[in-house]
Specification:
By secondary structure, the chain is of the alpha/beta class. It is built from 12 helices and 12 strands. The longest helix has 20 residues.
């Protein structure tokens, strides 16, 4: 659990009171959530995961407040972080941080949100719809359109918080969250600056693969045939089918790609495992990915600034390079030598320079 029991009960009573008050005033759900967050933020004694020593225990949620907001009919769960010496009479620049495919807010997105809050920003890490503590059925569905709408809703939520300057909101995404964030920013002028860390084009990855893991035309046809069979079964009344996202060690062979091995090391060991990240995916999801082109209008981000950070050893480097080539100025690509894709999730020697660059970037542009 993220809150200590006594702290969570105190926060829950305050939030419940504020929401009840909001209902009496016929406030919108978004406005009620903003009021709740404002009250929670006035409780300086409320902290998250203060004694946590692992991701599963809430290490990356330390200092955050649990908040909720609406994405249409779905109730979204988030962790809101504030700067040191937070002054509720001030308005701060804010950053929405979006997690990878299969992740949750307490993992790498929470780490980046936490570190950037320490640099002076209000930050929000949230569970995507269908994941973690957020609503949405079926569970573990990776639908790009839903993911983009999640970000839009998170930006709307931040823009209504009294402690946030709505004209100074930025967006950051990690891995697939980076692809979705770059896509969302193309048509959302509320985002004043946008950044991606090891951005992952889930559409291109499904269609073509990544370095060392190519996808052939026959592979694509096999994927689509599998999706079609399952869609027909579900149309006939069968339940939604989910399968393991990252293969366990028992399935490894000498040919298992290093990308999967590194993913396992982060998501399925104490290094980054979290009970909210279930290592499952809805098997029809790749059909949605196949038709997704997140970098199709990269030029539309300009003249708003763009920062891309990638690992020099990452199998996904080509996605950041592709996004960079398609974007217009102002833009910057920072490649961190020696870093793999998953190194930039949490390893201090790589995350520290990435956060420093992000803080400078958002500090200058928000």
């Amino acid at each position: 659990m993220i809150f200590a029991v006594d702290q969570r009960l105190q926060a829950g009573r305050m939030a419940s009171s504020s929401i009840s008050f909001g209902r009496n005033l016929k406030m919108s759900p978004l406005k009620r959530s903003a009021v709740s967050a404002a009250i929670l933020l006035s409780l300086s004694a409320v902290t998250c995961g203060a004694s946590a020593t692992s991701v599963a225990e809430g290490e990356n949620a330390a200092g955050a407040m649990k908040v909720s907001f609406n994405n249409r009919a779905i109730v979204m769960a988030g962790n809101l972080y504030t700067p040191p010496n937070y002054d509720r009479s001030k308005r701060y620049p804010a950053i929405v941080v979006t997690h990878p495919w299969g992740g949750v807010k307490e993992q790498t997105a929470g780490l980046y949100a936490q570190k950037l809050a320490e640099k002076g920003f209000v930050t929000l890490a949230f569970d995507a719809s269908h994941y973690g503590e957020s609503g949405g059925e079926p569970r573990d569905l990776e639908n790009p359109s839903d993911r983009v709408q999640d970000i839009r809703s998170a930006i709307g939520y931040l823009s209504n918080l009294p402690q946030v300057d709505a004209n100074r909101i930025g967006a950051l995404g990690i891995c697939a969250g980076g692809g979705y964030t770059l896509d969302e920013a193309q048509t959302d002028l509320r985002v004043k600056a946008v950044a991606g860390v090891v951005s992952y084009d889930i559409g291109a990855a499904t269609r073509e693969g990544i370095e060392g893991m190519p996808v052939s035309r026959q592979d694509r046809l096999n994927i689509l045939a599998n999706v079609d069979r399952q869609l027909n079964k579900e149309a006939a009344g069968e339940t939604v089918l989910v399968e393991q996202l990252i293969p366990g060690r028992e399935k490894w062979t000498d040919q298992t790609p290093g990308f999967f091995r590194e993913a396992y090391d982060y998501y399925l060991t104490p290094r980054g495992a979290h009970p909210g990240a279930r290592n499952q995916y809805v098997v029809t999801s790749p059909g949605l990915h196949m038709a997704y082109f997140p970098f199709s209008q990269m030029e539309a981000i300009s003249p708003r600034p763009l920062l891309l950070i990638a690992g020099g050893k990452a199998e996904t480097l080509k996605f950041s390079q592709d996004a960079f080539e398609k974007a217009k100025q102002p833009k910057e690509l920072m490649v961190i030598p020696g870093a793999s894709h998953f190194d930039l999730y949490d390893k201090p020697q790589y995350v520290t320079p990435a956060v420093a660059k992000l803080a400078d970037f958002f500090g200058k542009n928000l």
